[in-house]
Amino acid sequence: MQSLLAFVVPIAARVTAKHPHFIYVDPVDYEREILLEACTERGVGVVQLWSTQYAHMISERFALSIEQRQMMSDDTAPEQGQELAWASQRLPLGVAIGVLCGSDAGLSTAERLQHVLVTGRSNGINAARRDKYLMNRALALAGLDTAHQASVGAWDEARRFLSELPLPLKAVLKPRRGQSSLRVGLATSLQQAQAMLALLLDEPASLDRDEVPQHTAL
């Protein structure tokens, strides 16, 4: 916990210089130190923020002091519609040159912040960048070859879809939202598929549960 929370200090203590700044959502793991060092060498500041989803996870899993909880709250990304007001108070000159993200959980937050605060570098807001079901549909609509798919929330739904596929069965099961191929597997029988689906539906692979319907899988 110490390494994860070591940088949870008031933003005001970090943001002082009047030089360009990135916004860094969920600055965790080894990439954080590499990025901060590179930005320092280039005279670029970094405002570090938690996504609501990641902040909630930390608060649930770790015994935080009252002071740490307040710091976490102070450094949580603004809600939708509050981005400009937040930037005017917390960013030097109210300007950011880009938004970076260190977790799957913070991707939609980072995309939203960039779309509102760095309009010249935004290519819009699109959940299909993170939702594998919507991504597959977008590819099909663009005329590309795609695999047959179904989003299911129960074994009966999955069994009906799998029973329509040609034999021998080869079906990839995966969470609609996730990263690093976590819980992605190939089923070659209905029994195997049923066991894999039970694991997928039991616990989401992503901390961000806002964009994808709960207890669903592909």
What is the residue-mean pLDDT, rounded to a whole number?
86
**How many β-strands, per DSSP?**
5
Q: What is the beta-strand fraction?
A: 5-15%
Tell me roughly what share of residues is in helical segments.
25-40%
The shape is elongated
Q: Order of helices and strands, N to C?
A: HEHEHHHEHHHEEH
Q: Please summarize the sheet with the most strands.
A: 3 strands, parallel
Short overview:
It is built from 9 helices and 5 strands. The protein is mainly α and 218 residues long.
Structure, explained:
Helix content is 39%, strand content 9%. Strand 1, helix 2 and strand 2 (45-49) form a beta-alpha-beta unit. It is mainly α and 218 residues long. A three-stranded parallel beta sheet has the order 2-1-3, sandwiched between helices. Mean pLDDT is 86; it is low at 1-15.
Descriptive terms for the model:
single chain; 218 residues; mainly alpha; three-stranded parallel β-sheet; two-stranded antiparallel sheet; 9 helices; 9% strand; elongated
